[in-house]
What does this fold into?
Amino acid sequence: MLKRPSFIVTIVVLLVALAFVSLPGGAAARLKVTLGGLFLPLFGLAGASHNLTQKTADAVVSRSTLLAETEELRQENQRLRILAAQGGELLRENTRLREFLGAPKPTAWKVKFARVVARDPANWWRSVRIDLGLQDGLRPNLTVLCPEGLVGRISEVASAHSQVVLAGDPSCRVAARILESRENTGVIVPSPSDPTDNTIVDLTFLSRNSVLKPGQSVLTSGQGGVFPPGIVIGKILDYRMAEFGLYAEARVKLAVNFNTLEEVWVMLP
Amino acid sequence: MNWTNTALLVLAAIVLVFLESVIDTPRRWLGAQVDFLPVLAIYAAMRLNLKTLAILAISGGLAFDTLSRNPLGAGILPLWLVGFAGYHCRELVLRDQWAAQSMIGGMACLGAALLSLILLSTFNRHDALMAWNENNPDLARPIDIELNIIPLGGRDSGPLAGWGSWWTLLVMTTGGVLAGPAVFGVFDRLGRLFNYAAATESTFRKDREIVRGRT
It folds into this structure.
C-alpha cells in the first residue's frame, strides 16, 4: 500500500505528465519551442567549440594538401560550369517549348545552406535539428535536401533552430514515382521489415501491374504538394505483392546516408 | 530536502540530454543512442527522496521531449515509474556495491525504454485516430498523406519499432550497466563536495567519566 507522501507525489507527477501530453497540438509545439530556447546557450557553446576544433585542424593541414585540394576543386568547378552552361541551354529550350504548349514555366529552386547541429536523442524517431529558423525565413513543411537526394521536411521551427523529420520517419511520408515508368507512383513509408534500419524505406501503394526491377531509381512525384517533383530518393532493392495482390510494394535503399549527414540545403518558397 | 543535490541532478539531466543529441558516436558505431536519464532517476531513488525524483523526472523528461520528436510530456512517466520502482526496492538492494549499481542501471534503462515505446505507441495511435475523425476521409488528397493527416492502414505514425529494436534495447541496457557505477560514483563524490558531512556522535560522555585518583 502506498504511504501518503508517496501517493501525493505520484499523483502530482501523473497530473503534470497528463497536463503536458493533453496540450493541444499548437500549444504543445509553442511550448516545445520555448523550452528549446533553454538549450540555445549549450548549442552556442557546442558551435563555438566545433569552430575552434575546425580552425585548429585547418591550421595543421600541410600546404601541399591544401594546394592539391584547391586544384581538385578548380577542376570540379570548371566541369560544373560546363554542365551548368549545358543545363542552362536545356532549360531555355524547355521554357520555350513549354511556352508553345501553354504549360506553366518551371520554377527555379531557391536553397539555403544549413548545418545539422543535433539529432533526435530518442531511438524511435528519425529527426535532426538544423541551425536555421524563423529568422532565416523558414517555416514548417519546407523541403530539405542534399546533393545526394531528399533528406526530409521541416517539422518545427524555432527562432534560430528547426527540426527536420527525415525520410523514413513515420511522420515524413513522400509521394514518389519510379523514374523508368512515370505512371508508377506510390508513397514512401518506414519499412516494416526493419524500421530501425535508417537506410531502407518502403515504396508502397504501387499499381499491381507495375513493372518493377531492382536498381530502378525512385524520385519525388510532386503529387503530395509538400515535396517538389524530381528529387532523388533512392533505388529499388526488391519488391513484393501486398494485401493479397491488391497493390505492390518495393524496398528502397535511400540515396542519402543519414548517419553521416552534416550539411543540408533547405528549399525556400 | 537537500537542494544542492536536486539542482545538480537537474543540471546533469539537461546537459546529458543535450550531449545525447549532439554526440552521435554511439549511434554511428552501434546503431543506437544510449540514454542516461533512467540511471539518474535510479540514483535519485536510491540515494535521495521522492520529491527529488519527481523534479528530476519532470525536468529531465521535458528536456528530452524538447530535443526529440516525442510528444511533450511523454518522457516524464517512464522516468518516474522506473525511479519509483527503485525507491520501493531500495532497502532490498546492496546499493553501495558496484555490481548492484550496474544491475539496477541496466534494468532502469531497459525498463524506461520499454515503457517509452508502449506510451509512444499509445499516444500516436490516439493522434492518428483523432486526425482521422477530424478530417473527412472522403476529402483525403495526396497532400493529406504526406502530412500524415490520414492514416495509411496499419502504418500509423507510431514509433519505429521492429526486430531491430532488440538490438537498440540491448545497446541501451549495456549503456545503463556501464553508466550505473559511474553515475553513483560521480554524484556521491559531488554530494560530499557540496554538502556538510553528517555529524558523528561519539559514545564518550564527559559527565559519565570516571576520574581516578584524588580530585
